[in-house]
Amino acid sequence: MLSSRSDLETSLRYLRQIQFADLGAEGQKRLAEARALVCGCGALGTMVANHLVRAGVGFVRIVDRDLVDLSNLHRQCLFDEEDARRQLPKAVAAADKLQRINSEVRVEPIVADIRSDNIGELAQDVDLLVDGTDNFETRFLLNDYAIRQNVPWIFAACLGAQGQVMVVLPGETPCLRCLIPTLPPAGTLPTCETAGILGPVVGVVASLEAMEALKILAGRRDAVTHDLIVVNLWPVRLRQISLTSMRDPSCPTCVEQRFEFLEHRRESTSVALCGRKTVQVTPPEGRCDLDEIHKRWNALGEVERCPYFLRLRTPDWTLTLFPDGRALITGIDDPVLGRTIYARFVGM
Ligand SMILES: [Zn+2]
């Protein structure tokens, strides 16, 4: 029964959604009461947040450490040239746009790097964590938090024309570390900066992620997939891998309940070196194949290789990478920017 004009407008806004029987009016009501944390607001984060806010999820907190850049626009759907020109924080630019799309829900931007010392506060009052991050260290942290606090989370990643999605329902499904037991050492995985990325694959992966998020937030866990979904769009290949028997009986996180990322024992450090306009980034897992990274960097700027280090010069900063994974980034003094540059160009 619609009691006011505002109820009528709300009902009209979501009419096509409510008409989908598996969601229905009850699911829509639960979405309005639901709270989600979007972790990272780049390509995946903008698209997932866009879906959640348009669908009427009552509260969406967006956390991101980075600023909008012109090179983001081909795939990060909430940003425009003006945001890039003003170098706005991504969380703020996204929230501003989303709030204009749907003023009935609350969108809260937080400009921060998600770390072991703030995740408790960022995630304490939400029903779901959604992955929009750009590195495995943060994903392992999200996985630790989700398992310890018994909150569902959705892992997703994209690169080139490929991507993966996996829902983690603590106690029901395997966790991320059942599949990936140890943090890939820094520099071993390609990144969007070194391997490129195409916008449409982000759309597919983010849509899969958002659809599973809506099921969870609408109270329809029974409909959530227990498969790892692997998408490749060039050439096209879609795969579903059943996770039913994939729980690792010795998983450090969901079986042994050890939360080393959450407890700050496995975390990269990024510190400004006093008076040098230099930031030092040290990953938790050392060792870098400098020759391999050299190949990835060749198209990115002026690269210098010697037996002791690999160096990439750009107009704004110079990154010197050592075989143990440690990096010095000169030309900047913000440790959070240091982590961003490291995650993009070395990979963590
Ligand atoms: Zn596990």
Radius of gyration, in Å, reads: 21 Å
What small molecules are bound in this structure? zinc ion
Oligomer: single chain
Q: Give, in order, the helices and strands.
A: HHHEHEHHEHEHEEHHHEEEEHEEEEH
CATH superfamily of the largest domain: NAD(P)-binding Rossmann-like Domain
> How far apart lie the N and C ends?
52 Å
Mean pLDDT: 92
- The CATH topology name of the largest domain reads Rossmann fold
Detail the topology: elements first, then pairings:
Blueprint: H1 5-13, H2 15-18, H3 24-33, E1 35-39, H4 43-55, E2 59-64, H5 81-85, H6 90-101, E3 106-111, H7 119-123, E4 128-131, H8 136-149, E5 153-159, E6 162-168, H9 176-179, H10 192-195, H11 199-217, E7 227-233, E8 236-242, E9 269-273, E10 278-282, H12 290-297, E11 302-306, E12 309-313, E13 318-321, E14 327-330, H13 335-345
Parallel strand pairs: 1-2, 1-4, 2-3, 4-5
Antiparallel strand pairs: 5-6, 6-7, 7-8, 9-10, 10-14, 11-12, 12-13, 13-14
Helix pairs in contact: 4-6, 4-11
This protein binds zinc ion.
